[in-house]
Amino acid sequence: MNLRGFARFLFFQGNAQLGRRKYQESLELELPDTDNVRREKADTYSMWARTEHDFGFVEEARRLKEQALSAAMHIGHVGMRQEIRSHINNLTGSLQEDVDKQE
Q: What pTM was estimated for this model as a whole?
């Protein structure tokens, strides 16, 4: 959680490349393979997608949203899986609308 917060901070500081590396680093940590960790991974992808979107990297944001949804599919608990998928779609719901406006 600290790394992904730092990653977003780096985007705000104008260093998207380093921010991306910190997001990736947070996803590569060796953590237990539990539903809670899987949920955090999906949430991290969705936060990263939102950050990319907020800074104008729309295509990358769409790619990361798909990564978030894919990561969420690994959650075994049905209720938790549905909840995070809904959260991802709400958090990143405007991505497609913004792409449509740009085209």
A: 0.85
